[in-house]
Amino acid sequence: MGIRDTQGFTIIETTLFLAISGVLVVAMIAGAGVSLNIQRYRDASESFKSLLQAQYAALNNVQNGRDNTLTCDSTAAITSGTVARGQSDCILVGRYVRIDQSDITVYNVLAKQTSATTSGTNDITALRNNYALNASSFDREEKTMDWGTQIAWPKSGGGAHSPTTPRTIGILMIRSPDSGLIYTFSSTDIPPDKNVVPQSTFKDPTNGLLQAGSGIPGQGARTICVGSGGLLVAGDMAVYINAYAASASAIEMRSNDLAGVGSQC
After folding, report:
1. Domains contained in the chain, number
2. What is the rounded distance in angstroms from the CA atom of residue 153 to the CA atom of residue 48?
3. Please, are residues 151 and 99 in contact by the beta-carbon 8 Å criterion?
4. Does the CA dihedral 107-206-225-161 come out positive or negative?
5. 37 falls within a domain
6. For a disulfide at 157, which of 15, 38, 89, 263, Cβ 3.0-4.6 Å?
7. Could you give the CA distance from residue 36 to residue 146 in angstroms, rounded to a whole number?
8. Could you list the pLDDT tens digit for every one of the 265 residues in the chain?
9. For residue 111, with 0-12 CB atoms within 10 Å meaning exposed, 13-18 middle and 19 or more buried, which class applies?
10. Domain of 128?
11. Which residues pair with 72 in a beta bridge?
């Protein structure tokens, strides 16, 4: 009776197989992690853009969250007092978005007319001269940018800054009580305390948000880079606010090199 010689794997062959399999598994896990980080970053960037766009919808669909035990004073600040809903002297005219690195605070902006509108006066001059403006802390909203992202300066081109973080910015979307038109203003010179927004934030002659023209601060375009916050991505993206923005469509998401802007995040 003959003896059959059975062939098998040697220890060296088995070890090599396990080593190669291990390398492939690690590579797959690493690749999946990078893809997940990229998706998280994109989602966070889109959420930030959507939050800014939503402020225009809030202006077009005004909601009053106060009850009839609150009213406003001569500076358009919320105070105690009984006034029937819909009969207050103050009107909701804007949304003020304060962004400090990754912390976002959104306020309603109230206005109270202090003098009659002058014939021929443009909307911005009328807001500065004929209305008291105040950011209401009564119904402010606080949010945090997703997945550790934060706003940053461009690394090169228009608006470049070094270092790129930390960064703060204030953005005011406001509707003229006279014409109904919406205007957008922004400034990097904002109050350090989110709990107190002085009236000078809007109407200060030098640094106030309500300044016309293409310069900065004012109605000029803004590139707000979205820093990845440690997520492994190829290049940061940016939310771009077009000059003279008046609607949600003026807020765009742009990839690195920010085509047409000459800036890189």
Report:
1. 1
2. 15
3. yes
4. negative
5. yes
6. 263
7. 14
8. 455 555 655 666 566 655 565 555 444 554 445 688 888 899 999 999 999 999 999 998 866 666 666 777 888 887 766 555 555 678 889 999 999 999 999 999 999 988 876 655 788 888 888 999 999 877 789 999 999 999 999 988 878 888 999 999 999 999 998 899 999 999 998 888 888 898 889 988 777 888 755 444 578 889 999 998 766 666 788 999 999 999 999 999 998 777 777 788 8
9. buried
10. 12-63+90-254
11. 78
Contact 174, 208 (CB under 8 A): no
Residue 74 lies in a domain: no
CA–CA gap between residue 132 and residue 75 (Å, rounded): 5
150-152: strand order across its sheet: 150-152, 222-227, 237-241, 251-254
Tokens at 186, concatenated: 């922004």
Mapped to the 3 state alphabet, what secondary structure does the chain carry?
CCCCCCCCCCHHHHHHHHHHHHHHHHHHHHHHHHHHHHHHHHHHHHHHHHHHHHHHHHHHCCCCCCCCCEEECCCCCEEECCCCCCCCCCEEEEEEEEEECCEEEEEEEEEEECCCCCCCCCHHHHHHHHEEEEEEEEEEEEEECHHHCEEECCCECCCCCCCCCCCEEEEEEEECCCCCCEEEEEECCCCCCCCCCCCHHHHCCCCCCCCCCCCCCECCCEEEEEECCCCCCCCCEEEEECCCCCCHHHEEEECCCCCCCCCEC
The answer to whether 151 touches 224, Cβ cutoff 8 Å, is yes
In a domain, 166, yes or no: yes
